[in-house]
Automatic annotation (TrEMBL):
It holds the Pfam family Phage_integrase. Keywords: Chromosome partition, DNA integration, DNA recombination. This is Site-specific recombinase XerD. The keyword Transferase does not apply. Residues 43-229 form the Tyr recombinase domain. PROSITE patterns: TYR_RECOMBINASE (PS51898).
Length: 254
Protein backbone atom coordinates (compact mmCIF):
# COMPACT_ATOMS: atom_id res chain seq x y z
CA UNK A 1 0.00 0.00 0.00
CA UNK A 2 2.85 2.38 0.76
CA UNK A 3 4.33 1.88 -2.72
CA UNK A 4 0.92 2.55 -4.28
CA UNK A 5 0.47 5.72 -2.24
CA UNK A 6 3.96 6.94 -3.12
CA UNK A 7 3.27 6.47 -6.83
CA UNK A 8 -0.11 8.17 -6.51
CA UNK A 9 1.52 11.13 -4.74
CA UNK A 10 4.03 11.47 -7.60
CA UNK A 11 1.22 11.25 -10.15
CA UNK A 12 -0.79 13.93 -8.34
CA UNK A 13 2.19 16.25 -8.31
CA UNK A 14 2.63 15.84 -12.06
CA UNK A 15 -1.09 16.33 -12.80
CA UNK A 16 -1.22 19.55 -10.78
CA UNK A 17 1.69 20.79 -12.86
CA UNK A 18 0.04 19.66 -16.12
CA UNK A 19 -3.21 21.42 -15.22
CA UNK A 20 -1.50 24.79 -15.73
CA UNK A 21 -0.49 23.92 -19.30
CA UNK A 22 -3.33 21.83 -20.73
CA UNK A 23 -6.77 23.19 -19.87
CA UNK A 24 -8.49 20.67 -22.13
CA UNK A 25 -7.39 17.84 -19.83
CA UNK A 26 -8.81 19.39 -16.66
CA UNK A 27 -11.71 16.91 -16.44
CA UNK A 28 -9.40 13.90 -16.61
CA UNK A 29 -6.98 15.53 -14.20
CA UNK A 30 -9.73 16.22 -11.66
CA UNK A 31 -10.91 12.62 -11.88
CA UNK A 32 -7.37 11.37 -11.28
CA UNK A 33 -6.83 13.77 -8.35
CA UNK A 34 -10.03 12.48 -6.76
CA UNK A 35 -8.53 8.99 -6.32
CA UNK A 36 -8.08 8.57 -2.56
CA UNK A 37 -4.99 7.28 -0.82
CA UNK A 38 -5.20 3.69 0.39
CA UNK A 39 -5.39 3.19 4.12
CA UNK A 40 -2.95 0.77 5.72
CA UNK A 41 -2.09 -0.43 9.20
CA UNK A 42 1.14 0.93 10.57
CA UNK A 43 3.28 -1.81 12.12
CA UNK A 44 4.07 -1.50 15.81
CA UNK A 45 7.61 -0.28 16.34
CA UNK A 46 9.96 -2.93 17.61
CA UNK A 47 12.43 -2.07 20.34
CA UNK A 48 14.62 -3.90 22.82
CA UNK A 49 14.58 -3.95 26.59
CA UNK A 50 17.57 -2.55 28.43
CA UNK A 51 18.79 -6.07 29.26
CA UNK A 52 18.46 -7.23 25.65
CA UNK A 53 20.22 -4.14 24.34
CA UNK A 54 23.08 -4.55 26.81
CA UNK A 55 23.45 -8.22 25.87
CA UNK A 56 23.85 -7.23 22.20
CA UNK A 57 26.39 -4.53 23.07
CA UNK A 58 28.40 -7.04 25.10
CA UNK A 59 28.27 -9.74 22.41
CA UNK A 60 31.18 -8.66 20.13
CA UNK A 61 34.58 -9.93 21.26
CA UNK A 62 36.48 -6.77 22.20
CA UNK A 63 39.78 -8.69 22.09
CA UNK A 64 39.65 -8.65 18.29
CA UNK A 65 39.90 -5.62 15.99
CA UNK A 66 36.49 -6.19 14.39
CA UNK A 67 34.88 -7.06 17.71
CA UNK A 68 36.03 -3.87 19.41
CA UNK A 69 34.94 -1.82 16.41
CA UNK A 70 31.49 -3.42 16.44
CA UNK A 71 30.99 -2.94 20.17
CA UNK A 72 32.01 0.71 19.96
CA UNK A 73 29.88 1.29 16.85
CA UNK A 74 26.73 -0.25 18.32
CA UNK A 75 27.26 1.56 21.62
CA UNK A 76 27.57 4.90 19.88
CA UNK A 77 24.44 4.17 17.83
CA UNK A 78 22.53 3.35 21.02
CA UNK A 79 23.87 6.45 22.78
CA UNK A 80 23.06 8.87 19.96
CA UNK A 81 20.16 7.16 18.21
CA UNK A 82 22.14 7.56 14.99
CA UNK A 83 21.01 6.06 11.72
CA UNK A 84 23.39 3.53 10.18
CA UNK A 85 24.42 5.99 7.47
CA UNK A 86 25.18 8.65 10.09
CA UNK A 87 27.29 6.31 12.22
CA UNK A 88 29.42 4.82 9.45
CA UNK A 89 29.95 8.28 7.96
CA UNK A 90 31.52 9.66 11.12
CA UNK A 91 35.09 10.92 10.86
CA UNK A 92 37.61 10.65 13.68
CA UNK A 93 37.60 14.42 14.25
CA UNK A 94 33.81 14.58 14.50
CA UNK A 95 33.66 12.67 17.79
CA UNK A 96 35.04 14.69 20.70
CA UNK A 97 35.97 12.71 23.82
CA UNK A 98 37.92 15.37 25.72
CA UNK A 99 36.03 17.89 27.82
CA UNK A 100 32.38 18.03 26.78
CA UNK A 101 32.14 14.71 24.92
CA UNK A 102 29.94 14.97 21.84
CA UNK A 103 29.35 13.37 18.44
CA UNK A 104 28.63 15.61 15.45
CA UNK A 105 26.25 13.70 13.18
CA UNK A 106 25.29 14.49 9.60
CA UNK A 107 21.65 13.56 9.10
CA UNK A 108 19.15 13.49 6.28
CA UNK A 109 18.79 16.57 4.10
CA UNK A 110 22.20 17.86 5.19
CA UNK A 111 20.85 18.48 8.68
CA UNK A 112 23.60 18.29 11.29
CA UNK A 113 23.14 17.73 15.01
CA UNK A 114 25.39 17.27 18.02
CA UNK A 115 24.59 14.60 20.61
CA UNK A 116 26.30 14.31 24.03
CA UNK A 117 28.09 11.06 24.84
CA UNK A 118 27.80 8.93 27.96
CA UNK A 119 30.92 8.11 29.96
CA UNK A 120 30.76 4.45 28.96
CA UNK A 121 30.62 5.43 25.29
CA UNK A 122 33.54 7.82 25.71
CA UNK A 123 35.62 5.08 27.32
CA UNK A 124 34.90 2.69 24.44
CA UNK A 125 35.75 5.32 21.82
CA UNK A 126 39.03 6.19 23.53
CA UNK A 127 40.08 2.56 23.58
CA UNK A 128 39.02 2.15 19.97
CA UNK A 129 40.98 5.22 18.86
CA UNK A 130 44.14 3.67 20.32
CA UNK A 131 43.70 0.84 17.82
CA UNK A 132 43.35 3.41 15.06
CA UNK A 133 46.94 4.62 15.38
CA UNK A 134 48.38 6.80 12.62
CA UNK A 135 44.96 7.98 11.46
CA UNK A 136 44.00 11.56 10.65
CA UNK A 137 40.88 13.39 11.75
CA UNK A 138 39.44 12.97 8.25
CA UNK A 139 39.57 9.18 8.36
CA UNK A 140 36.46 7.16 9.12
CA UNK A 141 35.99 6.37 12.80
CA UNK A 142 34.56 2.93 12.01
CA UNK A 143 36.38 1.76 8.87
CA UNK A 144 36.33 -1.59 7.16
CA UNK A 145 39.43 -3.77 6.96
CA UNK A 146 40.87 -1.73 4.11
CA UNK A 147 40.34 1.57 5.92
CA UNK A 148 37.39 2.68 3.80
CA UNK A 149 33.80 3.36 4.75
CA UNK A 150 31.80 0.40 6.01
CA UNK A 151 28.87 -0.68 3.87
CA UNK A 152 25.36 -0.80 5.30
CA UNK A 153 25.22 -4.50 4.49
CA UNK A 154 28.43 -5.02 6.46
CA UNK A 155 26.90 -3.35 9.53
CA UNK A 156 23.78 -5.52 9.17
CA UNK A 157 25.87 -8.66 8.96
CA UNK A 158 27.94 -7.77 12.02
CA UNK A 159 24.83 -6.80 13.97
CA UNK A 160 23.15 -10.12 13.15
CA UNK A 161 26.17 -11.92 14.59
CA UNK A 162 25.86 -9.91 17.80
CA UNK A 163 22.13 -10.65 18.04
CA UNK A 164 22.77 -14.37 17.53
CA UNK A 165 25.33 -14.36 20.35
CA UNK A 166 23.00 -12.41 22.64
CA UNK A 167 20.20 -14.90 21.88
CA UNK A 168 22.04 -17.49 23.97
CA UNK A 169 21.12 -15.43 27.05
CA UNK A 170 17.81 -14.15 25.72
CA UNK A 171 16.33 -16.81 23.38
CA UNK A 172 13.39 -14.56 22.43
CA UNK A 173 15.77 -12.48 20.30
CA UNK A 174 16.15 -15.34 17.83
CA UNK A 175 12.47 -15.25 16.85
CA UNK A 176 12.23 -11.47 16.43
CA UNK A 177 12.95 -9.28 13.43
CA UNK A 178 15.84 -7.11 14.61
CA UNK A 179 17.97 -4.83 12.43
CA UNK A 180 20.53 -2.09 13.14
CA UNK A 181 17.70 0.46 12.87
CA UNK A 182 16.09 -1.23 15.88
CA UNK A 183 18.85 0.38 17.96
CA UNK A 184 17.48 3.81 17.00
CA UNK A 185 13.96 2.84 18.05
CA UNK A 186 15.35 1.42 21.28
CA UNK A 187 17.17 4.65 22.09
CA UNK A 188 13.99 6.67 21.56
CA UNK A 189 11.89 4.35 23.73
CA UNK A 190 14.43 4.27 26.57
CA UNK A 191 14.70 8.06 26.54
CA UNK A 192 10.91 8.30 26.62
CA UNK A 193 10.63 5.81 29.47
CA UNK A 194 13.26 7.79 31.39
CA UNK A 195 10.92 10.77 31.38
CA UNK A 196 12.63 12.87 28.71
CA UNK A 197 10.36 15.36 26.95
CA UNK A 198 9.19 14.33 23.48
CA UNK A 199 10.57 17.54 21.92
CA UNK A 200 14.03 16.83 23.33
CA UNK A 201 13.89 13.29 21.93
CA UNK A 202 13.00 14.74 18.53
CA UNK A 203 16.16 16.89 18.66
CA UNK A 204 18.20 13.92 19.90
CA UNK A 205 17.11 11.77 16.94
CA UNK A 206 17.25 14.57 14.39
CA UNK A 207 13.55 14.52 13.53
CA UNK A 208 12.48 17.53 11.49
CA UNK A 209 9.13 17.55 13.27
CA UNK A 210 8.25 16.34 16.76
CA UNK A 211 5.14 14.78 15.19
CA UNK A 212 7.40 12.02 13.86
CA UNK A 213 8.53 11.25 17.39
CA UNK A 214 4.95 10.79 18.63
CA UNK A 215 4.88 7.30 17.10
CA UNK A 216 7.01 6.16 20.03
CA UNK A 217 4.25 7.23 22.41
CA UNK A 218 1.90 4.91 20.54
CA UNK A 219 4.35 2.02 20.77
CA UNK A 220 5.10 2.05 24.48
CA UNK A 221 2.47 -0.38 25.79
CA UNK A 222 4.22 -0.71 29.13
CA UNK A 223 3.83 3.00 29.76
CA UNK A 224 0.16 2.82 28.80
CA UNK A 225 -0.40 -0.03 31.24
CA UNK A 226 1.21 1.91 34.09
CA UNK A 227 -1.00 4.92 33.37
CA UNK A 228 -4.07 2.71 33.13
CA UNK A 229 -3.37 1.15 36.51
CA UNK A 230 -3.33 4.60 38.09
CA UNK A 231 -6.78 5.44 36.79
CA UNK A 232 -10.22 4.08 37.53
CA UNK A 233 -13.14 4.32 35.13
CA UNK A 234 -15.59 7.09 35.92
CA UNK A 235 -18.43 4.53 36.05
CA UNK A 236 -16.69 2.14 38.42
CA UNK A 237 -18.12 1.95 41.93
CA UNK A 238 -15.85 2.26 44.92
CA UNK A 239 -17.58 -0.67 46.67
CA UNK A 240 -18.98 -0.85 50.18
CA UNK A 241 -16.47 -0.82 53.02
CA UNK A 242 -16.29 -4.11 54.92
CA UNK A 243 -14.58 -3.79 58.30
CA UNK A 244 -12.41 -6.72 59.44
CA UNK A 245 -13.71 -9.11 62.08
CA UNK A 246 -11.28 -7.86 64.74
CA UNK A 247 -12.57 -4.31 64.32
CA UNK A 248 -16.18 -5.51 64.59
CA UNK A 249 -15.41 -7.47 67.78
CA UNK A 250 -13.75 -4.41 69.30
CA UNK A 251 -16.72 -2.20 68.48
CA UNK A 252 -19.18 -4.76 69.87
CA UNK A 253 -17.25 -4.85 73.16
CA UNK A 254 -17.62 -1.09 73.73
Amino acid sequence: MRTRNARLAALRSFLKYAAHYDLTALIVIQQALAIPMKRFDRPVLGFLSREEMQAILDAPDARTWAGERDRTLFSLMYNTGARVSEAIGLRVGEVIVDGAAVAHLHGKGRKDRSVPLWRTTVSLIRNWKRRLAFTSEEDFLFPNRSGGRMARSNVTQRFELAVSAAAERYPQLASRSISPHTIRHTTAMHLLQSGLDISVIALWLGHESSATTHMYLQADLAMKERILNRLQPMTSSQGRYRPPDQLMQFLMSL
